[in-house]
Design brief:
Blueprint: H1 2-6, E1 26-30, H2 36-44, H3 46-50, H4 60-72, E2 76-83, E3 86-95, E4 101-108, H5 117-127, E5 133-139, H6 143-152, E6 155-160, E7 163-168
Parallel strand pairs: 4-5
Antiparallel strand pairs: 1-2, 2-3, 3-4, 5-7, 6-7
Helix pairs in contact: 5-6
């Protein structure tokens, strides 16, 4: 229900930045507990941790608690990106204090990196956004995510120490 509500205005988006980035059979589906091991492995991947705000390895039990809580949290939407039915990454939307603002974060599966999946995944996540402002915070050394953000039309907003904040405000025709 949260995902459907979040996607209400998908068909009316007129964002020019996204027209050049088409999902090659990429789809987003709600995450579930069957994804727990996969998400845990992706989260604990060395490159993922290096580019994450929190870099420590996550114990399995802590991850299961986080995932169970996340799946029930009405202020969080956790999706799995798939290409031709194969999971290739994840995208998460977290409601920010302003109820029309969401924070977007993403992870590309280690085996899918270097193939343009990140750009397709984030472009699809932006297409699925229903007119709310989306924010992304990216570590300043994370060149891949910065390049993805810029390619899909997120605009640099400001810097907070080692974090760069990008914002995306879709044009929605009514």
């Amino acid at each position: 229900v949260r995902v459907a509500k979040f996607r209400e205005h998908t068909e009316t988006s007129t964002d020019e930045e996204l027209t050049n980035v088409r999902p090659k059979e990429l789809s987003l589906r709600p995450a579930n507990l069957d994804d727990a091991r996969r998400l845990w492995n992706w989260r604990n991947d060395l490159d993922t941790r290096k580019n994450s705000v929190t870099q420590q390895k996550v114990p399995w039990e802590s991850h299961l608690t986080w995932l169970t809580t996340s799946l029930r949290n009405p202020s969080r939407i956790l999706l799995i990106a798939e290409e031709r039915g194969v999971p290739v990454g994840t995208v998460r939307y977290d409601l920010r204090p302003n109820p029309s603002d969401w924070e977007l974060s993403w992870t590309v599966a280690p085996e899918a990196r270097g193939q343009g999946v990140g750009t397709r995944l984030v472009a699809e996540a932006l297409r699925a956004h229903s007119g709310q402002r989306l924010w992304a915070r990216i570590k300043s050394e994370n060149r891949a995510s910065i390049a993805i953000a810029e390619k899909v039309g997120l605009q640099f907003s400001h810097r907070e120490e080692e974090l760069l904040w990008f914002v995306y405000e879709a044009t929605v025709s009514r």
